[in-house]
Design brief:
414 residues; Gfo/Idh/MocA-like_OxRdtase_N; GFO_IDH_MocA-like_dom; NAD(P)-bd_dom_sf; globular; alpha/beta; oxidoreductase activity; six-stranded parallel β-sheet; 2 domains; Rossmann fold; Dihydrodipicolinate Reductase, domain 2; nine-stranded mixed β-sheet
Length: 414
C-alpha cells in the first residue's frame, strides 16, 4: 500500500479465479475512487490467477491486471498484492482461504467459505491466527432496504419481533436436463440448495434479526439424475439432450423451522427458512418478512429497491406502505441522487468492496467477516443434520459474529 504526495492510497489487488464473480470483484475495486472518493483509495490490479489460460489472458487484456498466472500461489506470494479476492469454486475455498491467511493477505472470499461448517471453521481459525481482515460475499445484506429493515428492528419500530419468514427460491436447476455440474456432487459442493441458497437466508435473517438458536429441517431431491458434464467444460445452466445420466447427490429443496435466541427485544422469535434451486417461476427470489408486535416489514430481492412497511395495528391507513429506495437508506446516496432510481446487484458488490477495504485500511467494522460466515455455516450444517435425523439441532454460537436485533447491532450472546 503506497501513498505519494497526497494522492490516493494505492491498494494492490490479487484475484483468484476469473469467472463472472471475479469480474464483479474487479469492477467493484475499480469503482472505489468514483463511488467512495472520501476513502482516498485507488486499487491497482496486480495479478490474476485462473486454471484456464484463456481466462488469464482475459484478465490482463480486458480487465487490466498487470500479470497473470495459472497458479494461485503466485498471487499469494506477490509482494505487491495487499488484498486478495477468492472467487474459485466451493471445493477450493478451504485450501485457498487458509493459504491466504498464512500468507498474511487480507481476503475477500465468496460463499460458502467451506463445504460445511467444519471447513469454514478451519478457514476462520487460520484468519484469526494470522490477524488478517476478511470479507464474505453475502452481498444481499448490503441492499439499502435491508439495512433500513435492520435499523427498524434494532430501534424498536416493529416492537418485539415474534416471527420471521425468509426464502431463497431460485430456478437455476429447474430444467431436468440441466447438466450434472459440480454443484450437484457432495465431494465438490457439500450440501446442495442448503449450502448454496439457505446460507444466504441464514446470513440475512441473523444480520437483520439476531442469532438462530436451534433448527429442525427436511430436504428432498426433486430431479435425482442429470446428464453428465465433464468437469470444466460448462456450467449447471448447460442443457444436454440424450446424455449419459449421473446421480444428484445433494438436496434440491430444504425447509427449516428455527428458534431465535433471546435478545434485548425480549423472548426469542421463531421462523421458517426455505430454499429451492428447482422452482419454476422465481428467478432470484430471496425474500425476508419480519413481524413484530408493533409492525412488520418485507423485502424481496427481485424488487430490490422497495421495502414494504406497516407500523401500527389499525386505523384508516392500516396495511403496507411501499417505500422506494432513497438516500436515507444504507449507501443508496452513493449510487443514486433520489428515490425511484434503481440500484442493482453489482452495486451491492461495490458496497461490499468498500466495507472490506475499510476494515483493511482503517480497522473499521462493518464488513461481513469470516465469523459471520461461520455462523451462517453452522445454521446450514445444523439444518443438514436435522434433515437426516429428523430431530431438533442446536446451532453453536460463534464468538465475534455480528447479529441484528439490538441497538448496537450485535445480538446478545447465547
Amino acid at each position: 500500500m503506497t501513498v505519494e504526495n497526497g494522492s490516493p492510497r494505492e491498494i494492490g489487488v490479487g484475484l483468484i479465479s476469473v469467472g463472472w464473480m471475479g469480474k464483479l470483484h474487479t469492477r467493484a475495486y475499480q469503482a472505489m475512487p468514483s463511488v467512495y472518493p472520501e476513502l482516498g483509495l485507488k486499487c491497482r490490479l496486480v495479478i490474476a490467477a485462473d486454471t484456464a489460460p484463456d481466462r488469464v489472458e482475459y484478465a490482463k487484456d480486458v480487465l487490466g491486471y498487470e500479470r497473470g498466472t495459472t497458479d494461485y500461489r503466485e498471487v499469494l506470494a506477490d509482494p505487491d498484492v495487499d488484498v486478495v479476492s477468492i472467487c474459485a469454486p466451493n471445493m477450493l475455498h478451504r485450501e485457498i482461504g487458509i493459504a491466504a491467511a498464512k500468507a498474511g493477505k487480507p481476503f475477500w472470499i465468496e460463499k460458502p467459505v467451506g463445504r460445511d461448517a467444519h471447513e469454514t471453521a478451519e478457514v476462520a481459525a487460520a484468519a484469526r491466527e494470522a490477524g488478517v481482515a476478511t470479507s464474505i460475499g453475502y452481498n444481499y445484506r448490503h441492499a439499502p432496504a435491508v439495512e433500513h429493515m435492520r435499523k427498524l428492528v434494532a430501534d424498536g419500530t416493529l416492537g418485539r419481533i415474534t416471527n420471521i419468514r425468509s426464502v431463497f427460491l431460485n430456478g437455476y436447476a429447474s430444467e431436468p436436463k440441466g447438466a450434472l455440474s459440480w454443484r450437484f456432487q457432495k465431494e465438490y459442493s457439500g450440501s446442495g440448495a442448503m449450502g448454496d441458497l439457505l446460507s444466504h437466508v441464514a446470513d440475512l435473517v441473523q444480520y437483520v434479526v439476531g442469532p438462530i438458536d436451534e433448527v429442525t429441517a427436511l430436504s428432498t431431491i426433486i430431479h435425482p439424475e442429470r446428464p453428465i458434464l465433464p468437469m470444466g467444460s460448462g456450467t449447471h445452466f448447460a442443457v444436454i439432450e440424450d446424455g449419459e445420466m449421473g446421480t444428484v447427490e445433494n438436496e434440491d429443496y430444504g425447509a427449516v423451522l428455527a428458534r431465535f435466541a433471546p435478545n434485548s427485544r425480549g423472548a426469542g422469535a421463531v421462523g421458517t427458512l426455505e430454499c429451492s434451486r428447482v422452482v419454476v417461476g422465481p428467478q432470484c427470489g430471496l425474500a425476508i418478512e419480519v413481524y413484530g408486535t408493533e409492525g412488520s416489514a418485507t423485502w424481496n430481492f427481485e424488487r430490490m429497491n422497495e421495502l414494504k412497511l406497516a407500523v401500527g395495528r389499525g386505523g384508516a391507513h392500516a396495511g403496507y406502505t411501499t417505500i422506494l429506495g432513497n438516500p436515507g437508506m444504507g449507501d443508496y446516496a452513493k449510487f443514486q441522487p433520489g428515490p425511484g432510481n434503481s440500484m442493482g446487484y453489482d452495486d451491492l458488490k461495490v458496497i461490499e468492496a468498500k466495507k472490506f477495504l475499510q476494515s483493511v485500511i482503517q480497522g473499521v467494522p462493518g464488513a461481513c467477516t469470516i465469523d459471520d460466515a461461520q455462523s451462517a455455516a453452522e445454521v446450514v450444517s445444523a439444518a443438514v443434520t436435522s434433515a437426516s435425523t429428523g430431530s431438533w439441532v442446536k446451532v453453536p454460537a460463534v464468538p465475534g459474529a455480528t447479529y441484528g436485533g439490538d441497538p448496537a447491532g450485535a445480538g446478545v450472546g447465547r
